[in-house]
Amino acid sequence: MSNAPNLQQNRYKADLREVRFLLFEQFKLDQILGQGPFEAWGPDEVQMVVDEAYKFSCEVLGPLNAIGDRVGCRLEDGKVITPPGFKEAWKKLYEAGWMAVSADTEYGGQGGPFTLHIAIQEFMSGANSAFIMYPGLAFGAAEVIQLFGTDAQKERYLHSMYGGTSGGTMCLTEPHAGSDVGSSTSTAKKLPDGKYAIRGTKIFISGGDHDCADNVIHLVLARVEGAPAGTKGLSLFIVPKIRINEDGSLGEANDVNVGAIEHKMGINGSATCLLNFGENDGCIGELVGTVENQGMPQMFRMMNGARISVGLQGVAVAASAYLNALEYARDRKQGPSITNWKDATAPRVAIIEHPDVRRMLIDMKSRVEGIRALIIKLTRHFDLATVLKGKDDEQALYHQGQVDLLVPLVKAYGSDQGFRVCETAIQTFGGAGYIKDYPVEQHCRDAKVFSIYEGTNHIQAMDLVGRKLGQRGGANLQTFLGEVGAFVKANEKDPILGKAVKELGEAQEAVAGSAMRLLGWFQMGKMPMVPLAANRFLEMMSETAVAWLLLDGARIAIDAQAKLPADDSAAPERAFYEGKKQAALYYALNVLPHVRLNAEILGREDASALDIPLDAFATV
């Protein structure tokens, strides 16, 4: 008999109790349900959707994850063929309406909160990151057209993009430019009918072609003849793979050709394409909206959504890796208990009994739950900004400011730590984790790219220190730090959490001091120090935010635990809340102290990375 793993077995796992805690106990989603624009939604509807989305992820997407990884995509006659089962899963996804939960009802959506959309997307990303990128990109591209497009463009494209008959992409990167988007050489020549002839090459285009949908709607950055150099001269164009006739039917091919697909370390079921536009001078696009040279502000709307989704991918994959490692640690017996380590006849125990395995498990648990809380905090601010717009614009501005501030933290810290949790999960398995019989090695390979695409994490750090800290005159940062400080003041004498809360207060002060130091470098012209320290500062601020949210969750858990009945009927709930408390204490007392250390390192202004001569890195 073969010992080969069953590639069609679902290995995805999620903790639904933890999701319910965040939605309803910590972030109180029910407070905004039932009112505009979420009139049709209540707690029961949200809970039903969460349960069904998890079921769909396990039954439809999870079984395709290993297949997508092993088989990958292939290019035949210039067209991408996705792995077996992807086309059928795409059809089921859209028939069930999963990508339309938070979409506008005018275009076939269900008008739900963004927070619910993100909760659903976590399940689907964790079950099959490669697959869900296709509809995720279509959703993001549709949002851009909905925000910035003309009424005619919305009518022409949105129904098919939200409904699943068209995919979507964003096309920024070019071979010579990489992250330097301003160096783009793709061109757009205006035609007599007001449309544009598009020409250029884009690389690393996720979902650049596939066979799941009838069409793919590309959003392409290009420069109109005579436009300014750099990012200010870029415009955004809608470029369908197949032209769309006036009656909405599909016409002829639009001279968009797949030059190659990349062979990658992970997410092999996602086609990463090199696309050539206008090789035969037959590629026609239309400007998004009516104003040229607005490409970057328009594209940033999609990029911000994509960056949130990438942070979510990190925690989604990490959460499944953690829960698989937990299951393995409970089942795998190896070695005697530490209390009987000298007794060769002592019974073997499950490895979860070994102290270092328990350390790895609680480390993974705390990071996963803390980053998930950070993402839900961001989405709650987003939903509140939506609810309050036009009713209380000052409060709406506050909530949008917190969204802007948290996006780089979610993307960078979520993706960095997602990979590291997957790495720790492999370590928990030991040698078994390094082989393909278990899912964690694929989780680790899939997760590595999250820190690279949608803007490398250094770009996120520079966005944070170069743009976000100074927004609204620094009010967004001051509000964030003030809220952390208020939590510290309210809980620093707590008999259980007091020591950890004190550590949070010291971290908050370290972040505030380091932010002032960064400002001083800007003012004193010490500009090279800023990018040298930017990643360190983002990590400091992220760890402070995560510790705050974990401790806030622990405070809620302690209060809820005290109200439980003393009998065995409450044992599962008691254990859940105890886990929330212990994870928060672990993170605050073992991870959070790094914030003070990093502040000290930042303050030393060490420039050795700048001072080393170029030819001193190696003599080869």
Automatic annotation (TrEMBL):
It comes from the Bacteria. Residues 293-464 form the Acyl-CoA dehydrogenase/oxidase C-terminal domain. Signal peptide: none annotated. SUPFAM superfamilies: Acyl-CoA dehydrogenase C-terminal domain-like, Acyl-CoA dehydrogenase NM domain-like. Residues 45-164 form the Acyl-CoA dehydrogenase/oxidase N-terminal domain. Keywords: FAD, Flavoprotein, Oxidoreductase. It holds the Pfam family Acyl-CoA_dh_N. Its cofactor is FAD. Residues 170-277 form the Acyl-CoA oxidase/dehydrogenase middle domain. Belongs to the acyl-CoA dehydrogenase family. This is Acyl-CoA dehydrogenase. It comes from Chondromyces crocatus. The lineage of its organism: Bacteria, Pseudomonadati, Myxococcota, Polyangia, Polyangiales.
